[in-house]
Design brief:
Blueprint: E1 3-6, H1 13-22, E2 31-34, H2 45-55, E3 59-61, H3 65-75, H4 85-91, H5 96-104, E4 109-110, E5 117-120, H6 130-146, H7 148-154, H8 169-182, E6 185-186, E7 192-193, E8 208-209, E9 222-225, E10 234-236, E11 239-241, E12 251-256, E13 264-267
Helix pairs in contact: 3-7, 6-7, 6-8
Length: about 280
């Protein structure tokens, strides 16, 4: 059995299928982890959702910010400021209800016994231990399952920007969502810096990658994530970023997690312009 992780698909169905063929993925034998953002930006989000869902128990997906945006368009449309054309196709599909129910049941963080890696979409604030991160993820998942409209309608916004165990209600859930699905940078005090989406080199003064914070409580934990196409591929002890910007003219990347192996990259077939 092989365990592969693949970075953000963002509607790039053709590249996804070609990459699965390249790594000879067999759903009856192998496992697949996906870093989230299955949808949006790319040409065929609907086919991506159908394909990933069809893989069944062999695939594990964590929710990304674009996945949550799709769910908000479906379940909390009044709070959505921008309706993405690529996602309207999903909402208009005859199997939309089934696909959305499946997507909404995905976790925000995945860890399992016997595997050293933990799967997230974006990042973790320096204050959280891995156990705290998992507990916070479960809080949002329970809210999504219990009152999807309520959670999704209130998740947009950058505040609060600093963790406190005393956070409650919408603010607490919004902070958790922002960390797990949007985070790239923090400052020295551990506050989230959500406005910058670019490279480390052009980050605003005082902003550092979330995984470089010197007091990060998860320094000894192994984390695989995506979300950050401007960062690209990063592989070092305990850290693996797999968002290599397929939809932006980069590549779709797979990395085997159960043994040492070189990444497998498949160049994208078309390039989208604009902001991430």
């Amino acid at each position: 059995m092989a365990l592969y992780a693949i970075g953000d698909l963002q509607g790039c169905h053709a590249e996804f299928m070609a990459l699965l063929e390249r790594i000879r993925f067999d759903a009856g034998r192998d496992r697949l982890w996906l870093t989230g953002d299955l949808v949006n930006r790319g040409p065929d989000s609907l086919s991506v959702l159908r394909e990933v869902k069809s893989i069944g128990a062999a695939v594990t997906v964590v929710l990304g910010n674009h996945d949550l945006h799709l769910l908000a368009m479906a379940f909390a449309p009044r709070g959505v400021r921008k309706r993405e054309k690529e996602l309207e196709t999903v909402l208009d599909a005859p199997d939309a209800a089934e696909l959305l129910a499946w997507l909404a049941a995905r976790p925000l963080l995945h860890r399992e016994r016997g595997i050293s890696w933990t799967l997230i979409h974006a990042g973790l604030p320096p204050d959280w231990t891995l156990a705290e991160a998992e507990s916070c993820a479960r809080e949002v998942e329970r809210a999504l399952h219990g009152d999807a409209a309520g959670l999704l309608d209130s998740m947009y916004g950058d505040a609060p920007d600093r963790w406190s165990a005393s956070l409650a209600g919408e603010e607490r859930l919004r902070f958790i969502v922002n960390c797990l699905t949007r985070l790239r940078f923090v400052d020295r005090k551990g506050r989230l810096v959500l406005s910058h989406k670019g490279t480390i080199g052009d980050a605003p003064k005082g902003a550092i990658p979330w995984f470089r914070h010197p007091e990060r409580a998860t320094r000894k934990d192994a984390l695989v994530f995506g979300h950050w196409s401007a960062l690209g591929y990063l592989s070092e002890p305990g850290l693996l970023c797999l968002d290599t910007g397929c939809v932006w003219g980069g590549a779709l990347t797979a990395q085997r997690l159960d043994r040492e192996s070189a990444p497998v990259r498949l160049p994208c077939r078309q390039r989208r312009t604009g902001a991430d």
